[in-house]
Amino acid sequence: MILISGATGTIGSEVVRLLAGRGVPHRALTRDPARARSGPHTEVVRGDYGDPESLAAALTGADAVFMVNTPGAAGPGVHDRALYDAAVTAGVRRAVKLSAIGTGDPASGTFSQWHVPGEQALRDGPLEWTILRPTMFASNFLWWAGEVRAGRPVPDQYDGGAQGVVDPADIAAVAVEALLGEGHQGRTYTPTGPEALSVPQMAVALGRVLGRDIEAAALNEADKRAMLVSFGIPEQGLDGILEGLAYVRDGHNAVVTDDVERVVGRPPRTFEEWARDHKEAFV
User: Fold this and answer.
1) Which is nearest to 17 in space by CA: 235, 168, 209?
2) Distance CA 68, CA 282 (A)
3) C-alpha distances in angstroms, 278 versus 64, 91, 129, 272?
4) What does the alpha-carbon distance between residue 102 and residue 3 come to, in Å, rounded to a whole number?
5) pTM of the complete model
6) Could you report the per-residue pLDDT of 221-274, keeping only the tens digit for each?
7) Other residues' Cβ atoms within 10 Å of the Cβ of residue 47
8) Is 106 exposed, middle or buried (0-12, 13-18, 19+ CB in 10 A)?
9) Alpha-carbon torsion 51, 57, 63, 65, what sign?
10) Which distant-in-sequence residues (6+ apart) come within 8 Å of 28 by Cβ?
11) Do residues 1 and 62 touch, judged by C-beta distance below 8 A?
């Protein structure tokens, strides 16, 4: 039995789908089971990080847990620690944690510390652990859809910096292998796509999928701030995100690994393949 936190999110929902397809018993953790969309082979359970009893109930009889902790209202590591403590108490054997590339590197900004406490808890504790530090999700660029449909250039907030953009489905595939297989314990993987791409290069790839030219436009610092504010980012969080954008600009995220192929047994999917699968979002 595997418990998946973040089960309605980008990676967690794909982990649920893959486990269901393989007939593996699993539970999808959500604060509101009534609103969860799931197939007939998925057990949906209620759980809230602020309610230890709900986590204990969700983990009863579980052998492994997929840990997701996204930046939000709680501080770094708060949700990770709550789930980790409940998992240890419940006798869970294995944990796979979704972290992020650049974790712990001060140069990548404030959010580089978000996953540090959760990673350290796993390294110091009794569970068999695997940590995933993926690079930028291809799905993060779905926010271009409005610009593309309107015929406007897509914004390049990274100033030409390249990233090994990865299909979220590949991250989930690595997670499932780590949850089910052997030989992954005590390892930190960095799932990436097959090549490092800048925003202008991704725009060209998307243009090939759509059959028309897509341009990219550089942003100055004021433009970047305005864009982040339009996304609903509070003023106190802007500087940390801008530090992360500069981290990419300076080449620190131009990382490509063979981790997906080594774990899953096939090459990672390209950004263009991902765009082809999501073409309808841009037309």
Assistant:
1) 168
2) 28
3) 31, 40, 33, 10
4) 26
5) 0.95
6) 999 999 999 888 888 788 888 999 999 999 999 999 999 999 999 999 999 999
7) 25
8) exposed
9) negative
10) 4, 7, 8, 12, 16, 36, 38, 42, 43, 44, 45
11) yes
